[in-house]
Amino acid sequence: MIGILLTKLQLIVRKPWPLLILTVLCIAFAYFMGGGEYSKVPVPVVSELQEAETTDLLKELNKSDLFMFIVTDEKGMRDDVKNGSNEAGLLLNDTDFTIVSSVQSSNVSLLQRYVIEIYNKKRQKAELLNSLPESQKEKAVSIWDEAMKESLFSVSKASFSSSGARIIDTHLQSLFGFSLFFVVYTVSFSIVAILEEKRNLIWDRMIVSPIRKWEMYAGNLLVSFLIGYGQIVLVFLTFRYGAGVEFHGGFGKALIVLIPYVLTIVAICMLLAGITKSIRQYNALIPILSVVMAMLGGAYWPIEIVTSDAMVFLSNFSPILYGMEALKGATLYGKTLSELLEPLSILLLMAVIIMGMGINAMESKRR
């Protein structure tokens, strides 16, 4: 098995261009479909407050990981929103605020919720200070600021099938989606080598050699897994350290939950290799299957926005759905690995069943 593994890796080193091209395409699609630069969303702000109050409020607002608030004049703000330079603008006054937007997007909804939270804190602080004598206000402010550093809310746990609110991060959505999509082509490219070896009778010569049959399969499948997994790791590292993408503290967990997904894709490609009659037929089926899985699994768009019950039902048969759920759970929702057992277990079950079917189909074809 080690000999097969080393031989396959040497062949890849000699002809790395197909894999490199797929990796570059994955990075390019994820980058441009995710909105280009991975930075905070700028929000122009017009304030009717006093200068000191505006400074304090902006300080609180700019603690956001998603938005960057910039003071400007009202005409400039409205012009920027009108011509699409900014998704939304913010008008601030003492007791309320107004959001000016030309489109209703997920960012606008998140902006509204975030500013409401800041204003609620501002209102609570004002009510607290008004209820205290002047001598106690300074100490109360200090206690309040310290309390705001702690979480004011308890977090309840819910399963992936719950109907609660979902977080949509366009950058991570495109990165995860296109990474899971393109790895199908990468793995299929390595699996097709098995078909070529069978056609050239290389496997027949290997069978009469001292090598065991399970070592032949294990060596080839391990190479396919390492190539596919290595590609996604390289893409994630590029975005993490090259583009500054924020994985919300779940970068390590994201790399771990990828393992069962890549195993499932290897199994699916193995099954296709077993049931197809030629390399041409195999190469024709791979694009069809990969696009269908991506569309159903939420690689191109968040599955949360799909309203068709039929489409949601069919998505349960796509491994990309569970790969996306695991990756989002590890990053956006801060899930632990034990809390991700549901999608990971489904992927592992898929991998085992489909791999068994694929190897059986390959052996039946040989006979």
What is the fold's blueprint, element by element?
Blueprint: H1 2-14, H2 17-33, E1 41-47, H3 51-61, E2 67-71, H4 74-82, E3 88-92, E4 97-101, H5 106-130, H6 134-148, H7 170-199, H8 202-207, H9 213-242, H10 251-275, H11 279-297, H12 309-315, H13 319-331, H14 341-366
Parallel strand pairs: 1-2, 1-3
Antiparallel strand pairs: 3-4
Short descriptors:
single chain; 367 residues; mainly alpha; D-Maltodextrin-Binding Protein, domain 2; four-stranded mixed beta sheet; 4 strands
Short note summarizing the structure:
The protein is mainly α. It contains 14 helices and four strands. The chain folds into two domains: 2-36 and 168-366, no CATH class; 41-142, Periplasmic binding protein-like II (D-Maltodextrin-Binding Protein, domain 2, 3-Layer(aba) Sandwich), CATH 3.40.190.
Distance between the termini: 23 Å
Query: Helix segment count?
Result: 14
Give the number of domains: 2
Helical residue percent? 55-70%
